[in-house]
């Protein structure tokens, strides 16, 4: 088993691949642009998850945990990937509309992350794998500390915390205007849920986020996308049924080649 990164001294591989593919198949550009059904799909998932939280206001903690793992986690992870889509501005032609929709999609997740995610994720595309710049992949520090089955299991369970805290320690950026809006909208929703339905409803949303990003089938793509299984190959794709729930993020090689194509269009 590899105990270090595979170091490359070339630029990220997808930009030259994109140029080469487009030179041979220029009709691919016809797929660029907004996906027409994104607002509807996001609205359905957001409202379903918030409704589920309301009906669990007096449920037992065991029931809340079970429903969070086997149902709510799928919905919240779907919203993670919806926010990923919106970070590329491919729901609307006007960027600000994508940002507002991202803040809306963020609501059941419980923690404001939509605007900040976009800020760092676009750098992941431009500087894929550059240590200290690309915050979407583990750092050298993590690679040196997480070296056996026990530490890797712990890392996977808490990988959302590593994902969220990594930029704060390695590449902090001052919050901007839109991040403050994201924060206040999210806090308003969280306070409304607690006030109207109680702490159990709010705990359901947080648990759905936590377990859906940890030791869970939906979170497998975090590992499969860019962990090197074959030397020389930096990005990998998955073509299985979970793509139906994850905006086709499994088509990850294709996504990095053509990030302006909406996820649902990757399989055309």
TrEMBL record:
The keyword RNA-binding does not apply. Signal peptide: none annotated. Keywords: Membrane, Oxidoreductase, Transmembrane, Transmembrane helix. InterPro entries: FA_desaturase_dom, Sphingolipid_d4-desaturase_N. It comes from the Eukaryota. It is found in: Membrane. The chain crosses the membrane at residues 64-84, 96-117. Residues 1-38 form the Sphingolipid delta4-desaturase N-terminal domain. This is Sphingolipid delta4-desaturase N-terminal domain-containing protein. It comes from Hibiscus sabdariffa.
């Amino acid at each position: 088993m590899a105990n270090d990164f595979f170091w490359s001294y070339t630029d990220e591989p997808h930009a030259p691949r994109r140029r080469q593919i487009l030179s041979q198949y220029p009709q691919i550009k016809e797929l660029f642009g907004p996906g027409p059904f994104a607002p509807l799909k996001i609205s359905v998932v957001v409202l379903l998850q918030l409704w589920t939280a309301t009906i669990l206001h007096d449920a037992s903690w065991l029931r809340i945990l079970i429903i969070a793992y086997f149902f709510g986690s799928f919905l919240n992870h779907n919203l993670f990937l919806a926010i990923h889509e919106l970070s590329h501005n491919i729901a609307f032609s006007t960027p600000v509309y994508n940002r507002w929709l991202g803040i809306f999609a963020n609501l059941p997740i419980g923690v404001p992350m939509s605007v900040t995610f976009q800020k760092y994720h676009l750098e992941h595309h431009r500087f894929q794998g550059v240590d200290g710049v690309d915050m979407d992949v583990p750092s050298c520090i993590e690679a040196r500390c997480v070296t056996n089955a026990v530490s890797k299991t712990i890392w996977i369970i808490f990988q959302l915390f590593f994902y969220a805290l990594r930029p704060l320690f390695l590449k902090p950026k001052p919050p901007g205007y839109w991040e403050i809006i994201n924060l206040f909208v999210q806090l308003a929703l969280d306070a409304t849920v607690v006030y109207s339905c109680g702490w159990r409803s709010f705990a359901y949303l947080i648990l759905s986020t936590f377990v859906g990003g940890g030791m869970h089938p939906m979170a497998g793509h975090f590992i499969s996308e860019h962990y090197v299984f074959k030397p020389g190959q930096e990005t990998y794709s998955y073509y299985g049924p979970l793509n139906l729930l994850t905006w086709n993020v499994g088509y990850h090689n294709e996504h990095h080649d053509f990030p302006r194509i909406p996820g649902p269009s990757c399989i055309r």
